[in-house]
């Protein structure tokens, strides 16, 4: 049996989201100096959470969407929000099973120092455990 915390939630969510968004967006964990050339981008980052000490991981995950316009960033963040709340719950990847998914902070415009793009972000609590 795999231990709690053995699933890389960022990696699993990046693959899961990329498969649903296709070529419409880049999904990744870290940003680089080429962000303006790779819009829209969806950034997935675990920012905390807890676990039950046995198998259940309750990750807090920030999802930030970067796009050329505010409208485009809001639209993509809304799409990601729907995917997470409507399709992630009860799904599985080869490494993880996803349970409860809830928005801790719904998508909202977040400041970003580069005025050539816009950022919309949300925070989710995602329960998961390793595949048995």
Task: Looking at this protein, list some descriptive labels.
2 helices, 132 residues, 24% helix, alpha+beta
How would you describe this structure to a colleague?
24% of the residues lie in helices and 40% in strands. A five-stranded mixed sheet has the order 1-2-3-5-4, with helices on one face. The termini are close together. The protein contains two helices and five strands. The chain has 132 residues and is of the alpha+beta class. A hairpin with a 5-residue loop joins strand 2 (41-51) and strand 3.
Short description:
The protein is of the alpha+beta class and 132 residues long. The protein has helices spanning 9-21, 70-88, and strands spanning 26-28, 41-51, 57-67, 96-110, 118-130.
Oligomer description: single chain
Low-confidence regions: none
User: How helical, in percent, are the residues?
Assistant: 10-25%
Structural class per helix/strand content? alpha+beta
Q: Quick one: biggest sheet?
A: 5 strands, mixed
Distance between the termini: 6 Å
Order of helices and strands: HEEEHEE
Tell me the number of helical segments per DSSP (H or I, 4 or more residues long). Answer: 2
Rg on CA atoms, Å:
15 Å
Q: Going across the biggest sheet, name each strand in turn.
A: 1-2-3-5-4
- The beta-strand count equals 5
What fraction of the residues are assigned to beta strands by DSSP?
A: 35-45%
Overall 3D shape: elongated
Mean pLDDT: 94
């Amino acid at each position: 049996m795999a231990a709690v915390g053995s699933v890389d939630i960022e990696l699993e969510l990046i693959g899961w989201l990329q498969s649903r968004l296709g070529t419409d967006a880049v999904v990744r964990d870290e940003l680089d100096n080429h962000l303006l050339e790779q819009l829209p981008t969806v950034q997935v980052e675990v920012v905390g959470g807890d676990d039950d000490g046995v198998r259940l991981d309750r990750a807090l995950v920030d999802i930030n969407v970067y796009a050329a316009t505010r409208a485009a960033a809001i639209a993509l963040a809304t799409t990601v929000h729907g995917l997470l709340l409507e399709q992630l719950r009860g799904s599985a990847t080869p490494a993880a099973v996803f349970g409860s998914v809830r928005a801790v902070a719904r998508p909202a415009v977040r400041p970003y120092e580069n005025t050539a793009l816009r950022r919309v972000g949300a925070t989710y609590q995602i329960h998961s455990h390793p595949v048995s």
